[in-house]
Amino acid sequence: MFFEKVILCGIVLLILIKVFFSLKQICFKKIVEAEHKKDDELYKKKKEKKDLEKRQELLRTNQLQVYKENVDIVEIMKPVGKWTQMVMHNGGILLRLAQLIKSEGREKGFWELFVKAQASTQGKYKGKGR
């Protein structure tokens, strides 16, 4: 009777070990499949992103080519306002004005500095002559 119980417990133990290892293999396979799915999803996302960037770059180059091909100068307009003329014709005056405001802005007013900037860009700077 004791011998039969030992054999029965041994068989049950072997069956439990076999079930445990088979469940372990099934779980391991599912984990590996899930990792592969994640890797595949990441790969697909990266591939879609690269394809989108390629399409956008292609569209940009096509738009630039279309723009470059269709350029026609119809007429050259003169600036209408005083400030527009000043900005277009005297490009260095605003830069010089900004420099003067930075250096002498607290001592003098805007219009004094503006006249000084105009004079310095036109070569009419009033300094001490020797």
Automatic annotation (TrEMBL):
Record-given protein name: Uncharacterized protein
